[in-house]
Specification:
This protein is α+β, with helices and mostly antiparallel strands. The protein has two domains: 3-88 and 263-274, Alpha-Beta Plaits; 90-139 and 177-259, 2-Layer Sandwich (Pseudouridine synthase). It has seven helices and 14 strands. It has helices at residues 35-50, 82-86, 122-128, 153-163, 167-174, 234-244, 270-274; strands spanning 3-4, 23-29, 57-59, 67-75, 90-98, 100-101, 113-114, 134-138, 147-148, 151-152, 178-192, 220-228, 249-259, 262-263. Strands 1, 2, 3, 4, 5, 8, 11, 12, 13 and 14 form a ten-stranded mixed sheet that branches. Helix 4 (153-163) packs antiparallel against helix 5 (167-174). The longest helix has 16 residues, at 35-50. The chain starts with a strand and ends in an 11-residue tail after the last helix.
Length: 285
């Protein structure tokens, strides 16, 4: 069994052979970091610590740049378990903003269309959520890492976006419908969207990741807890919720609060993860 790095583990041996099944570090991915950013940061520290340039480091399940929460970082032979870890069910807290859509279904792209919100209320959302529980088909966003004939869907999306093409129609044509399962949905809060609850900027955030500020528009907003299977796109779920209410919707924020047995309350910050890698004199490297 691999070693799980948590707050009770203050440091790691500098010999990777002491971890024959590898190491898994549950990291609370910072806002505006890509999953690859997290891997690069941890891999650099771990490779120096273990004195292995070819150290294998990967993750079990990508998180979008504007999402936070549990990202499982696998080191050494634990990378062989990444696919199995990725299959575990997940829990998210999604901030869904109604009355407008964006091409990326989140705040990475500016609003492309506004919609009426007459049918959006706490009562209508609570009445709708049970219809989304269970096994169903879902079309992923075109701005995603899905593969289309060997090409990432987001590469197609960028070209279409620049040319003004219809991304939703392209997604329906290019991406197969996949079966997902939503086991539970719960409305946690309803009100007017505000950026006040947005995560704070952290050092190392990617300057390539744009964030659109829609907080001054006074759009209705719902915080929804979702328990779901692997492969569920919460951005696509936001799109579908908006359509079901006769409106449009996009994500104003997203946290992966759990993946399998790993909860965000137990996850390490990036700084805490890096502090596991010290040299013999307790000097951080």
């Amino acid at each position: 069994m691999f070693v799980i790095a948590n707050r009770s583990l203050t440091s790691l041996s500098d010999n990777i052979d002491d971890y024959p099944e590898g190491i898994v570090i549950p990291v609370d991915k910072p806002w505006r970091w890509t999953s690859a950013d997290v891997i690069r940061k941890v891999k650099y520290a771990a490779a120096r610590h273990f004195h292995k340039k070819n150290l294998k480091v990967g993750h079990a399940g990508t998180l979008d740049p504007l999402a936070t929460g549990v990202l499982l970082v696998c080191i050494g032979k634990a990378t062989k378990q990444a696919e199995a870890l990725q299959r575990h069910d997940k829990e998210y807290v999604a901030d869904v903003v109604f009355g407008a859509t964006t091409p990326s279904y989140d705040l990475e792209k500016p609003i492309d269309k506004f919609y009426p919100t007459d049918g959006v209320s706490r009562e209508s959302i609570e009445a709708l959520l049970p219809a989304f529980v269970g096994e169903q088909e879902q079309v992923a966003p075109l701005f995603s890492a899905k593969s289309v004939d060997g090409t990432r869907a987001y590469e197609m999306a960028r070209k279409l976006y620049k040319s003004g093409g219809n991304l939703d129609e392209a997604a329906l044509e290019a991406l197969p419908r996949q079966i997902i399962n939503i086991s539970a949905m719960e409305l946690l809060d309803f009100g007017v969207y505000s950026s006040a609850g947005q995560p704070t900027e952290s050092a190392g955030a990617s300057g390539r990741i744009n964030v659109t500020d829609n907080s001054a528009l006074g759009l209705p907003h719902a915080s929804i807890r979702v328990e779901c299977s692997k492969g569920t796109y919460i951005r696509a779920l936001a799109r579908d919720l908006g359509e079901a209410l006769g409106s449009g919707a996009h994500l104003g924020g997203l946290q992966r609060s759990r993946t399998g047995m790993f909860k965000v309350s137990d996850a390490l910050t990036i700084d805490e993860a890096i502090k596991l890698f010290y040299d013999g004199s307790n000097t951080k490297i």
